[in-house]
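Okay, can you check this protein?
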Amino acid sequence: MGTSRPTYIHEARYSSAETGEVDELSGGLTFTGVARCGGLEDQLYAARVQTAGTVNGKPAIITSAFGGNGALAWEPVPGVVAYIGYSGAQLDKGAIAALRRLAARTRLLSPEQWQATSPTTSDQINDFG
Protein backbone atom coordinates (compact mmCIF):
# COMPACT_ATOMS: atom_id res chain seq x y z
CA MET A 1 0.00 0.00 0.00
CA GLY A 2 1.34 3.45 -0.92
CA THR A 3 1.22 6.72 0.92
CA SER A 4 -1.56 9.28 0.55
CA ARG A 5 -1.11 12.58 -1.27
CA PRO A 6 -2.26 15.95 0.01
CA THR A 7 -5.39 17.32 -1.62
CA TYR A 8 -3.44 20.33 -2.87
CA ILE A 9 0.28 20.96 -3.30
CA HIS A 10 1.42 24.41 -4.34
CA GLU A 11 4.79 23.94 -6.01
CA ALA A 12 7.11 26.09 -8.11
CA ARG A 13 10.05 24.82 -10.18
CA TYR A 14 13.18 26.65 -11.30
CA SER A 15 16.44 25.94 -13.04
CA SER A 16 19.01 25.60 -10.25
CA ALA A 17 21.08 28.21 -12.12
CA GLU A 18 18.32 30.76 -11.36
CA THR A 19 18.72 30.19 -7.61
CA GLY A 20 22.38 31.18 -7.41
CA GLU A 21 23.25 27.72 -6.07
CA VAL A 22 24.35 26.04 -9.30
CA ASP A 23 27.79 25.16 -7.85
CA GLU A 24 26.21 22.93 -5.19
CA LEU A 25 22.98 21.84 -6.90
CA SER A 26 24.32 21.56 -10.49
CA GLY A 27 22.37 22.74 -13.52
CA GLY A 28 19.33 20.64 -12.69
CA LEU A 29 15.94 21.55 -11.27
CA THR A 30 15.12 23.23 -7.96
CA PHE A 31 11.57 22.96 -6.62
CA THR A 32 9.78 24.47 -3.66
CA GLY A 33 6.34 23.72 -2.35
CA VAL A 34 3.84 23.93 0.44
CA ALA A 35 0.93 21.71 1.43
CA ARG A 36 -1.27 20.84 4.36
CA CYS A 37 0.51 18.24 6.46
CA GLY A 38 -1.60 15.10 6.03
CA GLY A 39 -0.27 13.49 2.87
CA LEU A 40 3.24 14.91 3.11
CA GLU A 41 3.63 13.65 6.66
CA ASP A 42 2.45 10.23 5.44
CA GLN A 43 5.23 10.27 2.83
CA LEU A 44 7.80 11.31 5.45
CA TYR A 45 6.86 8.46 7.81
CA ALA A 46 7.39 6.02 4.92
CA ALA A 47 10.80 7.42 3.91
CA ARG A 48 14.24 7.85 5.39
CA VAL A 49 14.80 11.28 6.91
CA GLN A 50 17.63 12.96 8.77
CA THR A 51 17.46 15.99 11.01
CA ALA A 52 18.76 19.19 9.44
CA GLY A 53 18.71 21.91 12.06
CA THR A 54 16.12 24.65 11.68
CA VAL A 55 14.58 26.92 9.06
CA ASN A 56 13.46 30.25 10.50
CA GLY A 57 13.49 28.67 13.96
CA LYS A 58 11.42 25.61 12.96
CA PRO A 59 12.87 22.06 13.03
CA ALA A 60 13.83 20.78 9.57
CA ILE A 61 14.61 17.42 7.98
CA ILE A 62 16.30 16.20 4.80
CA THR A 63 14.49 13.53 2.76
CA SER A 64 14.13 12.13 -0.73
CA ALA A 65 10.41 11.45 -0.15
CA PHE A 66 9.34 14.26 -2.51
CA GLY A 67 11.42 13.09 -5.46
CA GLY A 68 14.65 14.45 -6.86
CA ASN A 69 17.96 13.99 -5.09
CA GLY A 70 16.74 15.47 -1.84
CA ALA A 71 14.59 18.08 -0.13
CA LEU A 72 14.67 20.12 3.04
CA ALA A 73 11.26 20.22 4.76
CA TRP A 74 9.90 22.11 7.76
CA GLU A 75 6.58 23.23 9.28
CA PRO A 76 6.49 27.06 8.94
CA VAL A 77 3.08 27.30 10.62
CA PRO A 78 1.03 24.58 12.35
CA GLY A 79 -0.53 22.19 9.85
CA VAL A 80 1.58 23.24 6.85
CA VAL A 81 4.73 21.59 5.46
CA ALA A 82 7.06 23.63 3.26
CA TYR A 83 9.93 22.11 1.31
CA ILE A 84 12.68 23.00 -1.09
CA GLY A 85 14.46 20.31 -3.08
CA TYR A 86 16.46 19.65 -6.20
CA SER A 87 17.40 17.17 -8.90
CA GLY A 88 20.94 17.19 -10.17
CA ALA A 89 24.04 16.85 -8.04
CA GLN A 90 24.64 14.21 -5.38
CA LEU A 91 22.99 14.90 -2.00
CA ASP A 92 25.93 15.87 0.19
CA LYS A 93 26.81 18.46 2.84
CA GLY A 94 27.27 21.17 0.18
CA ALA A 95 23.85 20.51 -1.35
CA ILE A 96 22.21 20.48 2.10
CA ALA A 97 23.88 23.80 2.92
CA ALA A 98 22.58 25.24 -0.37
CA LEU A 99 19.03 24.06 0.42
CA ARG A 100 19.30 25.68 3.87
CA ARG A 101 20.41 28.99 2.29
CA LEU A 102 17.51 28.88 -0.16
CA ALA A 103 15.04 27.97 2.59
CA ALA A 104 16.18 30.95 4.67
CA ARG A 105 15.03 33.21 1.79
CA THR A 106 11.55 31.69 1.46
CA ARG A 107 8.25 33.13 2.59
CA LEU A 108 4.67 31.89 2.51
CA LEU A 109 2.39 33.45 -0.10
CA SER A 110 -1.21 34.42 0.51
CA PRO A 111 -3.80 32.73 -1.72
CA GLU A 112 -4.02 35.95 -3.74
CA GLN A 113 -0.25 36.13 -4.20
CA TRP A 114 -0.18 32.48 -5.30
CA GLN A 115 -2.96 33.02 -7.87
CA ALA A 116 -1.09 36.07 -9.20
CA THR A 117 1.73 33.72 -10.30
CA SER A 118 -0.72 32.15 -12.82
CA PRO A 119 -0.09 28.59 -11.62
CA THR A 120 -0.92 25.56 -13.71
CA THR A 121 -2.73 22.61 -12.16
CA SER A 122 -2.14 18.90 -12.39
CA ASP A 123 -4.82 16.59 -11.06
CA GLN A 124 -3.52 13.56 -9.18
CA ILE A 125 -5.31 10.81 -7.35
CA ASN A 126 -4.68 8.61 -4.38
CA ASP A 127 -4.51 5.04 -5.66
CA PHE A 128 -3.82 2.56 -2.89
CA GLY A 129 -4.59 -0.47 -5.10
